[in-house]
Amino acid sequence: MKWVEEDPRDQTVIRDLRETLLEEIKLQRLDPDPFRKTAPRDEVYLGGAIRLGVMPHHGFMYGIDIISLIRHLLVMGQTGGGKTTVIKNLLLQILQVADAPRIMILERKQEFTELLAKYPEFNVLDVNHLSFNPLLPPEGIKTEVWIGVFTECMINYLDILEASSGFLMDHALRLIDIRKKEGTYPNLNDLLSFIKATKYSPMSKNGQQQQTVINRLTNLLHSLPGMFNTSRHIGISELLNDHCLILLHDVPHIGIQNFLISLLMAQMFLHRKVTAGLQGGLKNLIVIDEASSLFRRQDELKGHPSFISDVVRTARGYGIGLIAASQLSTDLSHSLLANTNTRMMVGGFGRSRDTDEFLRLRSCTPDLRDYVIRHPVIGKAFIADNRWPHIVECNMDNPALSPRLTPDELNQRIQDSFFRMATFAPPVPAEGPKQPVSPKPTPEPETVSLEIRTLNSMYEHHFVKLSERAKQLKVPSSTLKKKIDELQSNGLILIHKVHGRSGAPRDLYELTESGCRMISLPPKKMKGKGSYLHCFYQKCTANWFKSKGYHVDIEGTALGKNIDLIARKQPSGECVAVEIELNSSANPSHVVENLKKAANTDFIDRILCLVPKEPERRVVEKLVTKAGLRKRKPIEIERLWKYMES
Ligand SMILES: Nc1ncnc2c1ncn2[C@@H]1O[C@H](COP(=O)(O)OP(=O)(O)OP(=O)(O)O)[C@@H](O)[C@H]1O
Ligand SMILES: [Mg+2]
């Protein structure tokens, strides 16, 4: 400053000064505070074949190489921060690379389905089609070892006390032993029946463990019906050799999702370990959302090694890499945090323990901590990348995506994938030497495909008119009619004629047990509550009440029990409980029980019991009078047809 004062009008001095200042500003741009020590001066360090975004302040690109994913990528940040977006961007680029690793997306929230439209080679599996036998060891793995892993997955994620692990393992191994002598191999269904059939005193330790295990297996049966299927099987090599997206959003409980994910990961890992051994290169990439519920710190604190931690630590040796997303970092297992090459915080955690946890991964200055806390912006990432000693800042790209598949297209993809991947009979493992891998099924001719599509459509929608269904299946009505006749004569479906209040009878389609087996779905109940006919009448009666200005709850609750319909009229508030009894003559005491619970419920004003035919009406009339139910509430007993929509 001193020399400026010497001659303030001297232009050369001012020019010099400006240049020095510009130089200073430029330097600051390259090294802005608080990133003076952290931003790379040279673009080469943090570039890569896959571009993820741009580092602000100096405009360098941030990218990674596919091979680095073998040491895993973890994307953390609060909800809506852009985690999924980063991963989608990455996957889109990987899919364009020749010889890309096979991608398995374990999809909890239907966020990745946008990738499907553009990549027809992506297989899609949903819960009903995940038919692999979890008791079956991966090729080359001893049964005892595998049952140990299976048990651990059950204990960890299905809320079973560790004390029950011995019980579970013991029963599984005993059953496998018995079946092996008969030349077969048990499935989860067999295990459930086996455990149910063993007698223990209910108050004994074994009895209590038995009850817990039965409850968990029954829950699994309802949540993962495909796993109890004995006619179809998807082998682990099919899952490893293709891109696939596994839709988990229909699995009701995150614990069950994690049970399934941990089983799949264990299968993949062990299969690779035995068949390929140590190898270079990234062969499979597994994408997992909500990672903190799967890789849990609490499991590491139990004091014994957990299988999933081992997978995280050693998977790279077998060509398996992970991409995980999580809304938390404090609950994540140390093994994941420590074994991850690239960790990002996208969209910020704000001022929280998670921020501190993330920053602790690279020792950070208080300045940097403040800076990070002040920038919780969607799409902005702070990245701990093993190639650079300090945390870097990056504005992530938001790629344009092709439109999602329509629900019909998605269903079609699910069915096609299943037929591509599943083999008809589940394999039985041989003792000792390796099993030959079961051959892929020959592609099914178009006619079979229509059969399967029709069955699937009827399984979901049993009242759809012929012309409407033909439109959905994209075939002429006459072709579909022929197919339906064929299905009926082959005993795969039953057609009921249901009479409405007026007009011609409508067709109601029901899949027989062999029909369900054909499409590998669990049979639906034929009689009573939950059956096709019951649902049908429930719907029709609900429509009748709605047309009369009632608000209707299907499966409403009274005294903790379900009532088929609860109809409320506004504004009077009159409340009618409707029970539909299709088998009143076969099970009269059940009818009385059902009506009693409605009669004992305060808010219900009157009860309507609907039965199919006149003789049944008379039977119920007598039962109600005998039980004295009318002393509590007015009860009408009527024929169903009166309440059918016209
Ligand atoms: N880099 C980005 N630039 C602009 N917008 C973005 C960027 N990343 C994400 N977004 C937008 O933010 C929204 C949320 O992103 P995303 O679904 O990826 O968040 P998330 O972290 O996965 O959330 P969640 O934890 O709920 O799954 C999206 O609508 C997306 O378009
Ligand atoms: Mg997300």
Automatic annotation (TrEMBL):
Pfam families recorded: DUF87
Entries under InterPro entries matching the protein: HerA_central (IPR002789), P-loop_NTPase (IPR027417), T4SS_component (IPR051162), WH-like_DNA-bd_sf (IPR036388)
Species of the source: Pontiella desulfatans
Domain Helicase HerA central: 62-134
The protein's name: Helicase HerA central domain-containing protein
Superkingdom assignment: Bacteria
